Amino acid sequence: MSRQVPAIVRDWSYWAEVVLTAGVGAILFFLLNLRDLGQLAWMIGGLLLYHRAVTDGLFRRDINPLQQTVQDGVQADEAIAEYLNLSTSASETVRLRSAIESYYRIGEPEFRWHKLRSLNEFIRALDTMVLHKHSPTMLTSEYYAWLLPRIEAALPGNRIWAVSRFMDCEWDDSPEEQQFLQANLAAASRGVDVCRLFITTKESWNAAVAASRPIRSQVEHPQLASFFGDIEAIRKRDAGILSLIGDGLIGFDDDVVLQDEHSDDGHARGFISIKQSEVEDLSRAFNSLKNLCTRVSLEERPKGQSSGDLVGEQGADGRSAATCPDTPPPPVGQH
Question: CA-to-CA distance for 260 and 245, rounded, in angstroms?
């Protein structure tokens, strides 16, 4: 087995110092006939060269494991980036590496608890997406940042199915809700199958139709299927279905559902679910709930008729007619 040549032997500057030491000693010893001084120059130069060789070897012995550790860390980082499918995005890979480096740079004991908490929250969020196929709960800005482009990207023939529970943050004059309304109307106009169920009391519904421009604009839209469900009547018929629907939802085909989690402070929140069994359960629950609702539209009224009065379009079986699919759904159940 061949012996590895020390790194210093391959260093040209080391050999330059050897030649310089030998040359100075030779000049003093032979040319100037200063034999004692020449020998002293060789002795001091030799000691310095030996000291450099020893310290260089010790330094390299200590630094090599550190270099290997750094290299292993970089390789692990690249493996993580590849596993998380971030290798195609240079900016995300850089941010991930920066986060890992920042984590290991925090060594102060005062920050240990906060450091571990941040790491646990990060791991929990990733586990939620990987294991449960849910996103973490999104705050208002994140909620609309995900939702609006999704509606705008829907193509003719795609299906958007939604349930509105008349929460405080819905159908108000906020810029986000105005954009949400316009995105829904535009989607229906270009041929997207938009079907929305409004679930509330009769009094709240009639008041909203009379006074709320967002509600009226949806009910009046010829391509948008609007349904009203009396919450009291639904509770008597099938109370469990409202628990499945929760605070409301908006689904896209049979691929993904955004489930609302409105908070006490009146701000919109929600999480994305792409878990197939869950999406299927919610789709069946939506269809079952639709069969307990009435298709609504606003028609020309005789003088004196209240603008809050609704015309419900009933099917032959007494259920509501709809532009969205009316195939009787299977019983709603959990997987």
Answer: 9
List the domain range (segments joined by +) for residue 96.
1-105
33-49 burial by CB neighbour count: b if 16+ within 10 A, else e? eeeeebeebbeebeeeb
What DSSP line would sit under 161-182, residue for residue? EEEE---TTSSSS-HHHHHHHH
Q: Do 133 and 273 meet the contact criterion of CB atoms below 8 Å apart? A: yes
pLDDT digits (tens, 9 = 90+) for 61-92: 666 676 666 666 666 655 655 555 544 567 77
Q: Please give the model's pTM, rounded to 2 decimal places.
A: 0.62
Give the DSSP letter string of 211-242.
H-HHHHHHHH-TTEEEEEEEHHHHHHHHHHHH
169 — pLDDT class (breaks 50, 70, 90): confident
In the chain, how many domains are there?
2
Residues in contact with 178: Cβ distance below 8 Å, sequence separation at least 6, in sequence order: 214
In a shared domain, residues 221 and 298: yes
